[in-house]
Design brief:
By secondary structure, the chain is an alpha+beta fold. It is 28% helix and 28% strand. The strands form two sheets. The chain has a three-stranded antiparallel sheet with strand order 3-4-5, covered by helices on one side. The structure holds zinc ion (ZN). The site of zinc ion has 8 residues, from loops.
Length: 85
């Protein structure tokens, strides 16, 4: 999966410095509103309009489709598993 540079910034949860993310697929650069995960603490984060990271809120989650929620949960579990190994 392709990696994209993002504005260098600290995770709002753990302060781990993040400067890249993976796209949804190899041809889709992340855009505002996209979800990403912190590799330092595994927090689920969202890019705001300036591509700054913020923790996702219950209101944000409530607005997601069931399919997208399931995809996020699956990818979050994969990340947590990968970081444990
Ligand atoms: Zn973090």
């Amino acid at each position: 999966m392709k990696t994209y540079q993002t504005p260098k910034q600290a995770c709002p949860v753990c302060s781990h410095v993040l400067d890249r993310t993976m796209g949804r697929d190899d041809s889709t650069q992340p855009v505002p509103g996209d979800i990403t995960f912190c590799i330092g603490c595994t927090a689920i984060l969202v890019f705001d309009q300036q591509m700054k990271l913020a923790p996702i809120t219950p209101e944000f989650i409530a607005g997601l489709s069931p399919e997208l929620k399931a995809t996020i949960e699956t990818r979050h579990r994969v990340l947590i598993s990968a970081l444990r190994n």
